[in-house]
Amino acid sequence: MTVVLKLGGSVITEKGEPETVDDDALAAAADAVAASDDDLVVVHGGGSFGHHHAAQFGVSTTDGTHDVAGVRAIHGAMKRLNGAVVAALTDRGVPAVPVHPLSAASRDADGSLDLPTDQVRTLLAEEFVPVLHGDLVAHRGEGASVLSGDELVVALAPAVDADRVGVCSTVPGVLDDDGAVVDRIDSFGEVASVLGGSDATDVSGGMAGKIRALLALDSPASVFGPDALDGFLAGATPGTTVVGEGHE
Ligand code: IP8
């Protein structure tokens, strides 16, 4: 079974404190990953590493920068967080290998992403666990813009022929107006009113951006909270299941 798992940046970092890992949360997530028998590709978001610097330099997935200091600050912060994630996994015997998207990916002027994935497929086939992260990406006409972990999930899942996709967020799923978890989402229109906008320090579009991205997937995706990570990796479908158009 091949699984693409995204660990939200807000899950593994203290989102209000610049460049601060939430050690307990990262340890719990790494324990869950270490207990899995699946072929895993791990993607993590930016949390207080990427988003803090991206907001400072005015960079989002659509608005880039030519400021090389900004590029180095944002990418450098994401590499530090990636190092912490890889170290936590390594400590638990997971054969984790860092993969930095800025070194390989690019965006066209229309925003479309070109993400080479042969290296990820080969790492998986060789029984490594590739660990990618939200990053910056070279963006024609914009300099460098943010590449969100959700975009990586959407690009990677078909490339590795994922059987399951999981997005571990700080909330237990998409919540309706009464605070209850929505079981299943088939189209953005169904949930647009409850998703609202993104939060101020999330330059990738928050939950709304996440759901839009997951609806584009061929395979169903689960959005769930940290408490459900063990269950998801054991085969359950906790939280909200996002099923793109054309799927039952
Ligand atoms: O947290 C964003 O990744 P995300 C990465 O998955 C940066 O949206 C550089 C802000």
Automatic annotation (TrEMBL):
Its EC number is 2.7.4.26. Residues 1-216 form the Aspartate/glutamate/uridylate kinase domain. It catalyses: isopentenyl phosphate + ATP = isopentenyl diphosphate + ADP. InterPro entries: AceGlu_kinase-like_sf (IPR036393), Asp/Glu/Uridylate_kinase (IPR001048), Fosfomycin_R_FomA-type (IPR024192). Pfam families: AA_kinase (PF00696). Homodimer. Belongs to the isopentenyl phosphate kinase family. This is Isopentenyl phosphate kinase. It comes from Haloarcula saliterrae.
